[in-house]
């Protein structure tokens, strides 16, 4: 079950990768179309405004179609075969489901307790999905339907029909079966979902009432779930669904940007729910403190090597919001440090919330600048100066606490390894030479290197016990997630670090190899080898 949950979490991250660019476009477009900031230049009648309004509306694509996007993207990571065809099947059956549901509500709305004549949005419980007026089931409905389609695809796609029915094989047969399955699913949704919506409203009220305590608990759990790859499951309903605001915090905040940019009222008074996206503060302020502590406690002769290792990891966390590379350097060798890291992250986010700093702060500098600082700086720059001051104070706290704990308990963080256990971290030049066959990259001729021309994918596959040991694989933003048959023949964490990855973690028969932002290419290469 854990393997399936992890695979689901990784698949959910696929469409999330689009949000960084979409957020930049919305942020910049909002900045240039806000008259309170740009003055007469952004007058609705000006060519300048009209041009940037075109760009802005294009940037809304991802946020306006989130359920549809997740429904189509889920098969990329979850389908066991013919992923592209499964995406098509998910799209057409998701639309079929909503056509069924829309028609049922338009004919028998009062029976289901739904006023189908109401306008979409607000508390009506209705939404427009691909121009279909239907129940607002958000991302949960999209994932449920898409997951059902994936199950049908995995079971029926290879069904062999008689020759005279050959044109109904493959995707057509999956669509045929799914068409009739969607009828009872739509009926069940009409019966159950309006009651779920009432529960969501009650939960929303509870979360809002929890205040700073709710923020602390949420951020702490999000950090602590990272080693298990389950953090996506926790934050997705908050960020992309209706857990606290209609449509999710990302879409809700984006729609509010023009109003926020023009207002001088504190952001916390306008959108207090946006405190739940504060997971990024530990990325841009906490990770530098961790890196400084690692450097300060490294052996003198290893400081230069440790610096070369930490700089790209830290910059990746700060600018891209991807923390796995630096967090996984100490997660396995010093788990208590990770718990402390999570405690500090929750505390920092809570202090920011108490100080009135709210917004879309779950990513790195690029995301924060595009959705907060750039469009809102004109009227809210004072809050961002406070944010910077608080963040730098916590960077110092991270450094002091981590340095004390590393020295006190002699944790073998980077640069403090016992000589016989030292792991070789390769430079880009060494790795490229290894791929080209020009160097053994320090492997010392070890047979595990897979030959001088071995690619990273080949080495990863070898470390996982070979292709016959692979059950299935997927990826999230930085990790290759693999389920294996025999965990005993999988190489240890040190092997994966020695071939150029950031390490690996094992949970049951599930292995997560930390690759970095290039993991989609590595996954594709491994799949080619399989």
Describe the structure.
This protein is mainly α and 530 residues long. Helix content is 63%, strand content 6%. The protein is built from 21 helices and 6 strands. The strands form 2 sheets. It has a 4-stranded antiparallel β-sheet with strand order 3-4-6-5. Helix 6 packs parallel to helix 8, helix 9 (171-224) packs across helix 16 (335-354) and helix 19 (456-463) packs across helix 21 (519-529). The model is unreliable at 420-432 and 434-453 (pLDDT under 50).
How are strands sequenced across the largest beta sheet?
A: 3-4-6-5
The number of helices is: 21
Low-confidence stretches: 420-432, 434-453
Shape: globular
What multimeric state do the chains show? single chain
What's the short version?
With 530 residues, the chain is mainly alpha-helical. It contains 21 helices and 6 strands. The chain has helices spanning 2-16, 19-32, 35-38, 47-59, 61-64, 66-78, 83-112, 138-156, 171-224, 231-240, 249-262, 267-270, 281-297, 303-320, 324-327, 335-354, 365-409, 428-436, 456-463, 493-498, 519-529; strands at 126-129, 132-135, 470-475, 479-484, 503-507, 510-514.
Question: Strands, helices and their partners?
Answer:
Elements lengths: L1 H15 L2 H14 L2 H4 L8 H13 L1 H4 L1 H13 L4 H30 L13 E4 L2 E4 L2 H19 L14 H54 L6 H10 L8 H14 L4 H4 L10 H17 L5 H18 L3 H4 L7 H20 L10 H45 L18 H9 L19 H8 L6 E6 L3 E6 L8 H6 L4 E5 L2 E5 L4 H11 L1
Helix pairs in contact: 1-6, 2-4, 2-11, 2-17, 6-7, 6-8, 7-8, 7-9, 8-9, 9-10, 9-16, 11-17, 13-14, 13-17, 16-17, 19-21
